[in-house]
Amino acid sequence: MNTPALGRGEGAFFSCDIFNAAPKDDIGSMEHPMFSLSTRPDRRILSYTHNDTDITVTPSVRGLATLHDKDILIYCISQLMAAQNAGREITRTLTLKAHDLLVATSRETSGDGYKRLRDAFERLAGTRITTNMMTGGQEVTTGFGLIENWQIVRQGKGGRMLWVAVTLSEWLYRAVLDKAVLTLNRAYFSLRKPLERRVYELARKHCGRQAGWTVSVDTLLKKSGSASPRRVFRKMLRDMIVADTLPDYTMSEAPGDLMRFERRGAVVEPGRMPVISAAALDRARDLVPGADVYGLQADWHATWEARGRRTLRDPDAAFLGWVAKQAGG
Fold this sequence. Notes:
- The termini are far apart.
- This protein is an alpha+beta fold and 329 residues long.
- The strands form five sheets. Strands 1-5-11-10 form a four-stranded mixed β-sheet. A four-stranded antiparallel β-sheet has the order 3-4-6-9. The chain has a three-stranded antiparallel β-sheet with strand order 13-15-14.
- The protein is globular.
- Helix 9 runs parallel beside helix 11 (315-326).
- It contains eleven helices and 15 strands.
- Strand 7 and strand 8 (138-139) form a beta hairpin.
């Protein structure tokens, strides 16, 4: 295949040829809203601040990249991670067959499907992100497009797509190199409503390996990136509870305007998961004003599991010590 050079690293291409690679998503964009949930052109400038992370998302004339556009990035990340895990060399520029991408992400392979794919590339390249988000253990304030550039090669003038080349942003490529990604359920691509996809991403990120995650409606609204008023957003969440279509997780409403996510079929052995008292959660709010303490609790539980589920004499003290460290205290 004679492929043109895109950006830096001329001649350095990674060919997306891994069949049935497990879907992978980068943790940064799972945690923070970087994509529009609208199905119509969205030309708002989005600003988001949570704890010490600031993000501004600026659209092009074609609008913000959408959560469905993100399928392209998920496909690219999945291919790169599968290759990296197999010991293959990878590069920031990938070549792929459009048909393979459409099939892997449960999209139509009709003429309209290919046109929508091109539109998605244009929105991804045109949407600009400015952020100080942590990635690879570093805080870097930077601006970038979700992809650096792209190219479609056709058979003759206006013929069928032969292949596509795309160069990922350095920020996203660094996340791949550092394995700052999580595996998604393949049924993710069957979710047609953008909010369902976004809520699944957040549940996947925050539940980790533990049985569940509890979050306030206000925090979920903020993290989702939804432009809906709280009242309308809450109604959409309740509709999702009734529909019960999320892969891997069930949703329920809890007192105090909270939403609870639990892993389907998860069994937690009594006494195994450290229990954090309400008083400790209140103290955590004082240590990190404005923080989602349930998200902090979920992250701490994941850290505890990763460190081998050590026996804790005082879970509250261990949790608050970890929170203080995260807050720089």
